[in-house]
Amino acid sequence: MKGFLEDANYSIGLLDEGATLADVIDNCIYEHTHTGKRAFYVGDLGKLVKKNIQWQNVMAPIKPFYPVRCNSTPGVLEILGTLGVGFACSSKSEMALVQDLGISPENIIYTNPCKQASQIKYAAKAGINIMTCDSDVELKKIARNHPNAKLLLHIATEDISADEEMNMKFGTTLKNCRHLMECAKELGVQIVGVKFHVSGSCKELQTYIHAISDARCVFDMAEEFGFKMNMLDIGGGFTGSELQLEEVNHAIRPLLDVYFPKESGVNVIAEPGCYYVSSAFTLAVNIIAKKAVECDKLLPSGVEQTRNDDEPVFTYYINDGVYGSFASKLSEKLNTIPEVHK
């Protein structure tokens, strides 16, 4: 592999002809054995381009805004920026990171639901005007620190299939939207659109349909207050599966054509994060320990044991976990299936 970018935390290079992902992992394992480093990722940045082509083929003209928190590797951000993807940032450091790559403020959205006043001021100074809001507390904070902000009201969705314990709700109700518009009018703050988010674990496409219908209600409500609405953000939740992408598109396209037709001047955007990077990166870990356990202790309650009692059962421990690369398992139902490399 010919490297052309080296950093303390990552490197980017071109593969020699005939080289495979397995070869790259082998090389990294050899290097890490000598340097004492821990688990690592190997990414195929070409897959980002393929994912963007897939998005354009299925979801156009919905413009993607990549959530930087999903993977903030500069190589990933630079490629996506070159492809014309916008960025959804949740902190000052993320906004600074994408601006250092030459991304214009118009292609950046500040999406943190609970913003620090100092970071709102930073966004104002940087010319980043579009941001989300779901409460009067946030609205007043934004009015004080960024009076030229253009707000997307974040409305809640009814995700009936999600695990209640894992489903951290953000967003306001339709009823409260009127109150927020009254406050915005008094404070002189612009509301320009609506945002909602459907969890990637949601299997009910009706959730999207209800959310788009609710968004249309908010747009109609905004006309009463004289707000000129021009943006709808349908959020993230795109898993990376082409089938899921097509199913979502099939569900939302008729409603978008009716409620937000092209002639309405409303720009529809989305925030696909895992969609872009989940299939592009492979995590390599070491098994650092194992222990024999009783089989019945590993089975969920009510599941009948079908294996031979004479066969040993082991629990394996790896050098990564929920405080590292598997953090999303704390908030999402993920079933990661490992493959033995060597």
From TrEMBL:
Any one Gene Ontology molecular-function term assigned to this protein's record: ornithine decarboxylase activity
Highest taxon of source: Eukaryota
Domain Orn/DAP/Arg decarboxylase 2 N-terminal: 46-278
SUPFAM superfamilies: Alanine racemase C-terminal domain-like, PLP-binding barrel
CC terms in the record's Gene Ontology section: cytoplasm
GO biological process, one term: negative regulation of protein catabolic process
Pfam families noted in UniProt: Orn_Arg_deC_N
PANTHER family: ANTIZYME INHIBITOR 1, ARGININE/DIAMINOPIMELATE/ORNITHINE DECARBOXYLASE
Protein name: Antizyme inhibitor 1
Originating organism: Podiceps cristatus
